[in-house]
């Protein structure tokens, strides 16, 4: 399946200087983006201060609700605890669901500042999950790749020494810089198992152009679990100057902004879209004047929010028929997890298992209640449901522990009559499983009355005569070869009625001999054509010889047939 096109968005601390993109096509469409198309974001230096005020308020609410509902992100407050890793730490992996992999990367000619950045990265991850948890009404939050030797509450940070110098990255424009970093980091993530997006803290790569970060986003506003944003494999990057641990000032806002782009925000069909990947109702993590065609800025929210008004890209329970009900809602992303299950086992902490459903269908897709031996039927499990998405299907026909299929639908044939149990097990993206069993009644096909034999076919005398003529000419080649050394040629014929049979032999348009005879009905008779010495000599020279037979019945019907044979020279 071809990979959906991407939009590249850039976060700036200063006024954007790159050209805006064209507007998105209609709802549910995936439009192509010109290679390298980018747009400058303007994230004010003080954005984090406003965001942290919202964070403090969210945490007070969470603490109050957590006591009653057990809601928590699972991430520990800093300092970070673990061992610096240059490869994925699978030994302490806490879960296997879709997740955000955090990478600290530094150029080959700059010092490794992992010891300085690790605590800040842990705090950023905790703060992002708390902010999203608050916006989700304490129900869901971001899932990071977590698990170190110190436990599941710590981010598994990949530390990578880049193959190029700082100046090699700084001299590139933002889009090209991201592409180069992605290429250089690809070997470090190539063997990772599972669906992931990547958040990169790219130290000492800022070009001094005001670009704080950059990310890719699928342009797809479809509301269902098949939205391209659930495919993963996207990159979000924050650029540092190599000195300030806060990178370019509003580090928390930048990384949350870019990660949210990876999750599918903001689609151009959103009510307050700027038409260039952002929104226009400030103050919002994803909103600012980016120079887009509809960037008519308003300020309905006094403080920085995660979707100001909850109507452009994130709402935990949108009203029926509203934009986020009928279009892509980041709340539905498989990179979010139920509160309490983001660290540790995915199957616990408030993640209900999916519901398995089986419908039996015939060859034209109609629902049926029973099957017939030897007749293909389809076991349809596409009606199975989950609060997010069903990720896996397993069919066990006969309930004997075997797996006959792993797609949503399985077409099969039951070889014998009886009742056959069919078990369907479905799993969600966190590994939680749901199972159902359907007892399929199978009966033998009803015996149909034998079809009467077709009535005997009668043929006319004319057709019978034509068949007899063709039969007489069937072995003509051997007969003519014999005539090359004989004084006569015999043609055997069985007439369907009394009549007169005539024969003519020609070679290259010259008649070699003729004969006529009256024949009786139903008797096999022979008509003999006598050949002169001259005729035999000509036959001996070879060539195209034609024998024509004509039968004239007593009823007046005349039938003719002829056949030509190429004879070799004797």
TrEMBL record:
Segments crossing the lipid bilayer: none
Residues of the PKD domain: 360-449
Lineage top rank: taxon: Bacteria
InterPro entries hit by this protein: Ig-like_fold, PKD/Chitinase_dom, PKD_dom, PKD_dom_sf
Name by which UniProt lists this protein: PKD domain-containing protein
